[in-house]
Amino acid sequence: MTTMPLVPVEAAPPCDSRACVLETRGLTKSFGGLVAVNAVSLRFLERQTHAIIGPNGAGKSTLVNLLTAHLPPSGGRILCRNTDITGLPAHRMTGLGIGRSYQKTNLFPSFTCFENCRLAAQTRLPTSMRFFRPAARYREINRHAEAALDLCGLSARRDRVAGTMSYGEQRQLEIGMVLASGPEILVLDEPLAGMGREESERMVALLRGLAPHFTIILIEHDMDAVFSLAEVLTVMVNGTLLETGPVEQVRASVAVRDAYLGDGAEAY
Ligand SMILES: Nc1ncnc2c1ncn2[C@@H]1O[C@H](COP(=O)(O)OP(=O)(O)OP(=O)(O)O)[C@@H](O)[C@H]1O
């Protein structure tokens, strides 16, 4: 098996004093004749919440799948801390500090919350801990799992079987599992999908608590959540970037209102 070398790439000029942790340059994905993501160039800064919105079929999930190496791009590049990571396999993403959650619930329903987090925590250790004795390794994994449960607000549910919890708590646990893998960048694909009002509020509060510590790339249709969490907003339509920038600037864009937010944007 050949391993792609990680090639340092000349940094783009900074537009913020925070470091750019992830970047796309002309990223493109075609499915046959359909260009789902079309020459998208974006910069994600450390400890910044960057929401990506757009109508159904705009290419948001495809973009997430490219960023997390679940799909190979048809063109363009992905840089992580100025290193070209285009074409790396998905299992290398955890080591690069990139963790993702999925649109659909993705946990082990017959395992407890702790066991789910412990499984996720194991993905971060194999190389860095391989010289430790098994007992020390397990202690370290358990420590990460407990910390993740605490961060996602489920310490009190530690020994509860995941499948017996409410839908909202299961989605919270999925965030915990992402955290247990030790990421710096959280790529969250519709974390509020299917939630009622109270559950959504709890999830928004959880994400708000995480925001100062992580780069969050948030795909979300719930505009109240987007506007209360995001610092930067990108709008995609038909695979292309319609607008990207500080939330207030993008909200004020006539093109964005016409294409996506519509008159209802005044309500936000
Ligand atoms: N594996 C695939 N094969 C073929 N076409 C695909 C595939 N995945 C996505 N597409 C198409 O690419 C386009 C973008 O889809 P994508 O799921 O990325 O949009 P989205 O913005 O995430 O939509 P939604 O908000 O509904 O999740 C759509 O036209 C979709 O049908």
What is the strand and helix layout of this fold?
Blueprint: E1 7-8, E2 20-31, E3 34-45, E4 49-53, H1 60-67, E5 75-80, E6 83-84, E7 98-101, H2 113-122, H3 134-151, H4 167-180, E8 185-189, H5 197-210, E9 215-219, H6 223-229, E10 232-237, E11 240-246, H7 247-251, H8 254-261
Parallel strand pairs: 4-9, 4-10, 7-8, 8-9
Antiparallel strand pairs: 1-6, 2-3, 2-5, 5-6, 10-11
Helix pairs in contact: 2-3, 2-4, 3-4, 4-5
Residues 31, 34, 36, 54, 56-62 line the site of adenosine-5'-triphosphate.
Indicate the percent of residues in helices. 25-40%
User: In the CATH scheme, what's the topology name of the largest domain?
Assistant: Rossmann fold
- What is the typical, i.e. mean, pLDDT? 88
Count of individual helical segments: 8
Major sheet size, sense and barrel closure:
6 strands, mixed
Count of discrete domains? 2
**What's the name of the CATH homologous superfamily of the largest domain?**
P-loop containing nucleotide triphosphate hydrolases
Distance between the termini: 51 Å
CATH architecture designation of the largest domain: 3-Layer(aba) Sandwich
Record keyword descriptors for this entry.
268 residues, alpha/beta, Rossmann fold, 6-stranded mixed beta sheet, 8 helices, 31% helix, globular, disordered N terminus, disordered C terminus, binds adenosine-5'-triphosphate
Task: Compose a concise summary of this entry.
The chain is an alpha/beta fold. The protein contains eight helices and eleven strands.
